[in-house]
Design goal:
single chain, alpha+beta, DNA Polymerase III, Chain A, domain 2, Arc Repressor Mutant, subunit A, eight-stranded antiparallel sheet, 12 helices
């Protein structure tokens, strides 16, 4: 049975209507509280509340969707995560299957208020709140408060208390993988509203089982089932229909593929609001199972370095590794390792517009996050049981034997990459992260340096 982390809120979130204006309050919960005296993270006006409401409703629809799960699993609704800091607010979440990641960024010029504290929390979107968001009109004044300044949902005298919801641990694993993919993605296309709308009209009806490719025919982008030069490969193309409600309002769309096509990210721009939408390689593959973060967890990292970063990041949500290394007088290589490790732990997100990481203070203890990688734990068991033998390690080539269940696997790492004789490698060819045998070898080599 999948692990669940249950949030229990002291107060509800809500949309409060009074004195001719509406104020949105998002309740917070955390296992780790640093500044409990702050009334909230952010308090102020949203400059474009109509678009923000449309984006949050779309985000909620993504969170409720699934492309490989049973109706029973889909009945367990989950809710987005919100981060406030660095003069912006971010809402993010996954589909149930964790194969679709979405984020709503309200940028600095889209906010008129005060950041009282930087922080991250989970957000409860119950149906009455979604209904209230759907009723927000153009040019209507809406105030946003992230925290506990006020509670309750009041619309025409009605009050709604939020639900207590479980949060699946696969979200934390998904956050780590998708940020690593995003940090490697590069912008390939920019389309205007008309180009984007025409492109989406070409999505076939029903579930698309085969790969499709984004190509250009003249100046017009199209989706084609036939691969062409410089085409962007998209698995589970039908998942893009989740963006349909937003297309009438966009200014433009940009496309960021992963270099190995392990994901594609579609960013919609609405002036001072950006909506990011990332798809896993296939509709049956969730980001939580890709294993892209495992290599970043091989090297041990001193707790003191993580503590230094934690204090730094709490005061500055944006994370620039070079600046951090200079300010804290830390070796650049150690900072690179720290960046990869923190991203692997779900503590760093990646902003494609700024081309830099940002820190999210997840409401989880670090020890809990580190327990979510079974392949790495199995690799450590292999080492502890003495089942890993390094045969040779010279001239850039490593060969090892690792005992499995009734068989000895051969692991080779050289300039061509890493290879293993196990079934996992034979099936995935390294596309879904290293197998436990390769990870075990890497940990031993790393500890011997």
């Amino acid at each position: 049975m999948e692990d669940l982390l249950t949030y229990r809120y002291a107060n509800p979130s809500g949309l409060v209507k009074k004195a001719g204006k509406e104020e949105l309050f998002l309740s917070k919960y955390s296992e780790i509280q640093k500044n409990t005296d702050a009334p909230c993270f952010f308090w102020g006006n949203i400059m474009n509340p109509f678009i923000m409401a449309r984006c949050l409703i779309t985000l909620s629809n993504i969170v409720k969707s699934s492309f490989n799960m049973s109706p029973f699993q889909m009945a367990l609704l989950k809710d987005p995560i919100v981060t406030a800091g660095n003069e912006r607010v971010r809402f993010e979440g996954f589909s149930h299957c964790a194969g679709v990641y979405a984020r709503v960024d309200v940028l600095p010029n889209g906010l008129d208020g005060e950041f009282l504290e930087n922080g991250t929390t989970n957000v409860d979107f119950n149906q009455p709140m979604l209904t209230a968001l759907g009723s927000i009109r153009q040019n209507e004044k809406v105030m946003l408060s992230i925290g506990q300044k006020e509670v309750g949902l009041h619309v025409d005298g009605d009050k709604t208390v939020e639900r207590k919801v479980p949060l699946p641990t696969k979200w934390i694993k998904g956050l780590s993988t998708v940020q690593i993919y995003l940090s490697k993605a590069e912008k390939v296309h920019t389309f205007n509203r008309i180009q984007t709308q025409q492109l989406f009209r070409g999505i076939p009806k029903g579930q698309v089982r085969n790969d499709y490719y984004l190509i250009l025919r003249g100046s017009m982008p199209v989706f084609s089932p036939v691969k062409a030069a410089n085409a962007i490969c998209i698995g589970g193309l039908h998942r893009l229909r989740l963006l349909d409600p937003l297309l009438p309002y966009i200014d433009s769309m940009q496309v960021f593929p992963h270099p190995d096509m392990q994901s594609t990210t579609w960013q919609l721009y609405f002036g001072n609001i950006c909506f990011s939408f990332s798809l896993s390689r296939d509709s049956w593959r969730g980001f939580s199972g890709e294993g892209a973060a495992l290599d970043s967890l091989v090297d041990d990292m001193p707790d003191e370095l993580i503590d230094v970063f934690d204090k730094y990041a709490y005061a500055n949500q944006a994370f620039n590794p070079t600046l951090f290394a200079m300010e804290e007088n830390i070796d650049f290589k150690n900072v690179d390792n720290l960046t990869g490790r923190l991203a692997a732990m779900g503590l760093l997100g990646f902003d494609l517009n700024e081309n830099q990481f940002f820190y999210r203070r997840l409401p989880f203890k670090l020890s809990r996050i580190m327990s979510l990688n079974p392949r790495l734990k199995n690799a450590e068991k292999l080492i502890e049981s003495g089942k890993v033998d390094i045969i040779s390690n010279s001239e850039g080539r490593i060969e090892a034997r690792v005992e499995g269940s009734g068989v000895r696997h051969t692991v080779i790492m050289d300039a061509r990459g890493e290879r293993c004789t196990c079934d996992w490698y034979s099936k995935h060819q390294g596309e879904r992260g290293s197998c436990k045998h390769v990870l075990a070898v890497k940990k031993i080599i790393s500890s011997d340096r």
